[in-house]
Amino acid sequence: MMDWTHLPGHADYAATLAAMEERVARIARGEAEEAIWLLEHPPLYTAGTSARAEDLVAPDRFPVFDVGRGGQYTYHGPGQRVAYVMLNVGARGRDVRQFVCSLENWVIDTLAEFGVRGERRQGRVGVWVARPDKAPGPTGAVREDKIAAIGVKLRRWVSFHGISLNVEPDLSHFDGIVPCGIREHGVTSLVDLGLPVTMEDVDTALMATFPRHFPELNGTDTAV
Question: What is the pLDDT of residue 220?
């Protein structure tokens, strides 16, 4: 059975990461159930394994954490729903690309609950929203804003890190980095799109749509 946990307040990043790694180890040993933690962090930047130094525009603005997940620089902060996803990928096909795709599709289905069309893009991990209300880009193409970032790491075929979905963060906080190394597109949030959505609304939608993409495992499945 999936263990859903809400962490209160603004969770300390380093302490949460340590607790997540401990939970992943227990899942891998068969000592704990799969888990999803829903939380918010204080303002901070994280650097994934592909982060480039030049993409950290304001290194002194917020704390910066080097982490082992995939991806580049991203922002976490109040008003953003972070979901740390600790799943037994070993028992779910051992297909990392499909696992990331399933995370994206989970977010897309969640956004659809609020009438928002989220989309995947080839070569750009995450979920995007077309912005025909904005001026076209340099090539004349419709602008696109990122509404959710995805970065994962696997240890003994158990995942950790996960997704971050912008509900109502201070979007100016993204100015201190080049989010995910992509300069030609911006970022948005559900509230920025004009939707009076609360964090509780988003949590309800995340929990409702999750089983469509990640069915429960039976008791005989193992991580390794």
Answer: 45
